């Protein structure tokens, strides 16, 4: 028999409703909004599906490609553009 975990997720004020909706969609039960957070119950497998990014935040993949050809190029700064005073 799997037991439920009583959990609490924080969020910025006025975002509690969005977080509650996401938690309901992520297999959470007993969802209750409070100030700056949401309490809920979930089993281990449901807790693993809880979103870790606050509602309204962009969800970028953790391993996105570098916007530069190498790590060293990140520290060299942008390439000068035509008409740029250096």
Structure overview:
- The chain has 86 residues and is an alpha+beta fold.
- The protein contains 3 helices and 3 strands; from the N terminus they run βαββαα.
- It has helices at 16-25, 44-47, 71-76; strands at residues 5-10, 29-34, 37-42.
- It has a 3-stranded antiparallel β-sheet with strand order 1-3-2.
- The longest helix is centred in the N-terminal third of the chain and has 10 residues, at 16-25.
- The chain starts with a strand and ends in a 10-residue tail after the last helix.
Number of E strands: 3
The description of the largest β-sheet is:
3 strands, antiparallel
Strand neighbour order, sheet with most strands: 1-3-2
Oligomeric composition of the shown chains: single chain
**Mean pLDDT, all residues:** 75
Q: Which value, in Å, is the CA radius of gyration?
A: 21 Å
Uncertain stretches of 5 or more adjacent residues: 60-64
């Amino acid at each position: 028999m799997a037991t439920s975990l009583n959990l609490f997720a924080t969020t910025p004020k006025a975002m509690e409703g969005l977080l509650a909706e996401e938690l309901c969609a992520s297999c959470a039960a007993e969802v209750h909004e409070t100030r700056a957070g949401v309490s809920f119950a979930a089993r281990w497998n449901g807790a693993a599906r809880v979103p870790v990014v606050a509602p309204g935040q962009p969800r970028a993949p953790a391993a996105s490609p570098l916007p530069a050809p190498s790590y060293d190029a990140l520290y060299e700064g942008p390439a000068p553009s035509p008409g740029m005073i250096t």
